[in-house]
Amino acid sequence: MLKVSIFNFKGGTGKSTTALNLGAAIAQLNVKTLLIDLDGQRTLSFGLGLDGREPTALQWLTDKAEPIATDIKNLWIIPGDIGLFRLTSETDLFIKSLNSLIPLDFDVVLMDCPPSLGLASVQAILNSDRVLIPTLCEPAALKGMSEAIGLIRGENQSIPIEVVRTRYRSRLVLTREADDLLIESGEDLNYRLLHTVIPENIQVAESIAQQSPVLTYAKTSLGAKAYKSLAKEVLKLWGLKK
Ligand SMILES: Nc1ncnc2c1ncn2[C@@H]1O[C@H](COP(=O)(O)OP(=O)(O)OP(=O)(O)O)[C@@H](O)[C@H]1O
Ligand SMILES: [Mg+2]
After folding, report:
1. What ranges do the domains of the chain cover?
2. Does 172 or 51 have the greater pLDDT score?
3. Distance set, CA 72 to CA 2, 146, 179, 205 (Å)
């Protein structure tokens, strides 16, 4: 059971969209996948049409509740809970709850973190094997990304970090400048910049409102293709597929 936190300190960088669509794309490749929505905003749960369903992540943390099967084969979810905003207890709830999932035999667990380093994000990162950081490709957004890496390294010095560029607009000079910065700073900050980029794509944004992954909503869209490539790239990197 490989545990991956999807985190960025900055808001609106495509964390929940990536959890949803990468999770669906990985599941399509016959990898048993669990999504855990750790954000009180619950965008991920909403995107799968399962906002409001119980047991929620808060119930899972406190009562060891079981995940819910989604309509997509191999894809399960523990939905978000507005009460996660109030989660302040310093106990080892996360370790116990994650360990309770072991008998269910998930290959991958993707945890969608809120855009802050509160208890949910810290505990998710401390208990993960890897961190995936979605970032916008703009010089201003990269400041947030390097701050996020500093915060992650403060919690877990040696955890592998992968960075994925989202809402990518290849024609812009701004994007090329940010690309150069991302390539340059990979070595200093010790992260891997993923080859796959997720383009700015209207079908990706629409699919959230339609409450389904872009892979189902618009199979042939550039967004769906990009998330399929991302799934293949990370599964190879994470040692889960050849
Ligand atoms: N590839 C894309 N193309 C177009 N729009 C996108 C794309 N990815 C995300 N979006 C849109 O960007 C907005 C932010 O995305 P999302 O909610 O995934 O970010 P987030 O990092 O989870 O935000 P938060 O920090 O609030 O949790 C949403 O409106 C979403 O529909
Ligand atoms: Mg989010």
Report:
1. 2-231
2. 51
3. 20, 35, 34, 19
Q: Look at residue 164 and tell me whether its pLDDT is greater than 90.
A: yes
**Most informative mutation of 8, 17, 211 for ligand 1 (most atoms within 8 A of CB):** 17
pLDDT band for position 53 (50/70/90)? very high
**What single-letter DSSP state applies at residue 104?**
G
Q: For 177-201, what is each residue's pLDDT tens digit?
A: 899 989 988 888 899 999 999 999 9
Which pair of tokens denotes residue 235?
């599964």
pLDDT at position 139 is 82
Whole-number Å distance, alpha carbon 177 to ligand 2 midpoint, is 26
Its pTM stands at: 0.96
Name the CATH superfamily for 2-231.
P-loop containing nucleotide triphosphate hydrolases (3.40.50.300)
Ligand 1 residue neighbourhood (C-beta within 6 Å): 11-17, 39, 41, 43, 115, 166-167, 198, 200-201, 204-205, 208, 223
CB-based burial of residue 151 (10 Å sphere; 0-12 exposed, 13-18 middle, 19+ buried)?
middle
Q: In a 10 Å sphere around its CB, with 0-12 CB exposed, 13-18 middle and 19+ buried, how is residue 85 labelled? A: middle
Task: Point out the ligand 1 atom lying closest to the alpha carbon of residue 115.
Answer: 25
